[in-house]
Design a protein that fits this description.
Structural class: alpha/beta
Strand order of the largest sheet: 30-36-35-31-34-32-33
Helix content: 25-40%
Shape: elongated
CATH architecture of the domain at 627-822: 3-Layer(aba) Sandwich
Strand content: 15-25%
Length: about 800
Amino acid sequence: MKITLMKRCPLAAMATVDGEISYDAARAQILKARDELSRQGAGGKIAIFAENSTMWAFSLYGAWLNGSTVIPVDAGSNAEEVAFVLDDAEPSSLCVGRANLETAKLAAEKSAHKPRIIVLEDLFSGEAQAPAEGDWRIEREGEELAFIVYTSGTTGKPKGVMLTFANLYANMRAVYEAQYFYDGVRVLAMLPFHHILPLMGTLVMPLSIGGRISFPRKLSPADISEVLQKYPVDLVISVPRFYELLHANIMAKIRESKIASALFFAAKCADSIKFSRRLFSAIHNKFGGEVKYWVSGGAALDRKIWRDLETLGFTICEGYGMTECAPIIAFPRIGKVKIGSPGQPLNGIEIKIDNGEIAVRGENVTSGYWRRPEETAESIRGGWLYTGDLGYLDDSQYLFITGRRKELIVLPNGKKINPADIEAQIVRQSAGGISEAAVAMSGGVLKAALRVPNAGDENAEEFVRNNYILPYNRSAASYKRIIKFVLTSGELPRTRVGKLKRHMLPEFIESAESGKDSRSAPAPDSEIYADLAEFLAGKLSMPTSPDAHMEMDLGLDSLGKISMQCYVADKYGVEATERDIEKYPTLRLFSEFVEARRGGAAACGKGESWAEILGALPYPEVPKPNPLHFLSIFFFKAFCRIFYKATFSGLENIPENTPAIFAANHQSFLDGLFLIMPMPTRMLYRTYFFAKIRKMLKGGVLKKYARRSNVIVMDINDNVRGAIRSLAAVLRGGGSVVIFPEGTRTKDGEIAEFRQSFAILAKELNVPVVPISIRGAFEAVKANATLPDFGARVSVKFLPQMSASETETYADFAERVKSAIENAK
């Protein structure tokens, strides 16, 4: 089967700020390239090592007319990287831009293979002879090899992916059927052509259907805007990093203006792309004002950024693909976008999930890797390409990506975490303070490289720790906490399309750490310091040191702080609050604090147990609920019944007249309402909620409401001990408590680690725990949604009561309850 690669069109094929190039003029330059390359014979392999330009395109089609296979090489590669490709693929010619000539010569010296070097500026200088009339088409047989595209090497050495013309045609046909591309489509050539997404999406595909490609002079915002003002486009294809920067720049300006902020809120409420485009027309006009679709690929786009850009009138379409699939696997159909999903499989492409991994089959899939039979056999099994990506298909066959198998970090305890989730959460919680985050396992602990604008400032590290990393750690499961971090104002190690080179992160972080002053002052010659260091050593997995941040570097959590308070009060007569530990965060400073305030108490050294903490007199007073409490519950329960379809099971496991701890997984801010909906009013009178204090509860109406309702608020930096004692008082008085042991809502729908507070109460007071499984609330109650998802289904299942055994630790019991919720059907 012959594949047509270029369709003649009366319109321009390409456009630059200097003018347009017609299809006939482009054909003349392509013939010039073919004639030059044919001097070494037809066929063979041709490498192109240059920045994006019209000359790059002429070289590609000239090579194809010559019957050659093309090897795109990253224009940002160094000599060693180019030499690797030359030795591996052995091209007969290397077409280079003048800016890359010296690197190409050095690469040729290092390589055992010596290709002929052709300088593109010399090849295409002067006028090209007009092509003769006749058959104008550029065609190749489907089984012939079109490209050897080297992967970006984010996790190691790059591999050459072999793609035939049949692979390209299968993908172009499927994309054309999805109707984002159409005859005469206008696209922007933004991303470098050595990557398969821009190579196919902004060069090969448009020219195959008579489209026009606009080339900016450089990939700067000013140059992109310049060419789009002169030659508007219908389609922009880029990577998440571009949309992150676009979002950051626009939102920074919106936040500076109350009027702009009000308009943004109005657009969010209206939820109309057309309305938003009119409202923010000034922004769209900077991009030519005619872009219909903004395509994101290469990695997952942050959902908040996606939603905000849609509020601004940008029609975002996220696809999923890989070099091995030429490249698109899944893409949303027009008007059927699900935020967070790259859509459904394209026509002719099959997807299956095998043990959590995405596998693909179709005519677009590569036959394998150049000269890598073992790696080909590892990736392609039984006719299916195993992508290495983790994900799932929903009931409508929408694909969702949850991580990459090779990028998952395996902790010493066997737990697996996705670093991309942690990175996104850190950046999101910093509200612009951290522009980039990269997480890696180094030295047995999680470390992060953070890009901040003021990385070199004297107090930058302390500011980032206190304002960004500690708040993240306090909301994260213990095994997801950042133990060390380094700051940089420069770029993290990324490929040219913005993908993190994760295999380089440990070395990058280690290098940054070695640049710090590694000299540490000796430990104080103090009995109190030595005593506290010994006490902490028995409770922490990290080795203690005088100037390590006890919470950040040593992992001292809120319960560990209580143990420390009890110990110094019992042994030294010093009443230290959580705020004191925060004020004196290192062991050196805290021991000095204790030394200065010690009251001469007898050194018994026994410490205080949780039984003693909970049993200490006098018991805290528990306020009775205000009538407003019942009125608000009635209102919100009615709200939930109207907007959501909640189903309940296991109601026989709810104790009506005896105390209990209701422990549920935390999917949404309405979870508390969902789980009390089936409870009778008389039971609600004696049921209290345990809530972590947030900014919204620190003052004003909500704080007053919490005080007048059955809500016990905990500040992890101030009153953890008091809050837990208040819960104990509720249970002693015959009441019940509702606790969400994760401590915060799930970020990805998965159940996080359970904190031990509920397990301490259950074991020390001999109170049963009723595990509660909540399903569907994560999808139904979207964190950034303006309106409810009408009719969404939520299921709440009350599981059989559980009690802690005498020999069971708090941690073991918490894990057992969590497992029961996870395994609930």
